[in-house]
Design brief:
77 residues, 4 helices, 0% strand, elongated
Length: 77
């Protein structure tokens, strides 16, 4: 929960500073969007590693597939 709050506060800070200088806004917003996407992928992969066999079976994913996907770096698709 603390990570979400910290990330949200950092997001607001970047958005406020970007509003002051429009030339900086686009790159900052793009960078922030990429960080958010990477963090979402990271969290999803960590959750995938914790799923039990029954849940994986319901999803149609083998344990091997889950491990391969779960241990990928967050920046890889």
């Amino acid at each position: 929960m603390e990570d979400k709050t910290m990330f949200r506060n950092a997001t607001r800070s970047l958005e406020c500073s970007a509003d002051r200088d429009p030339d900086v806004r686009s790159p900052l917003v793009a960078l922030l969007a990429r960080w958010r996407a990477w963090y979402a992928v990271y969290r999803q992969r960590r959750i995938l590693l914790r799923l039990d066999e029954a849940t994986l079976k319901d999803l149609g994913i083998s344990r091997v597939d889950a491990l391969q996907e779960g241990y990928k770096p967050f920046w890889r698709a």
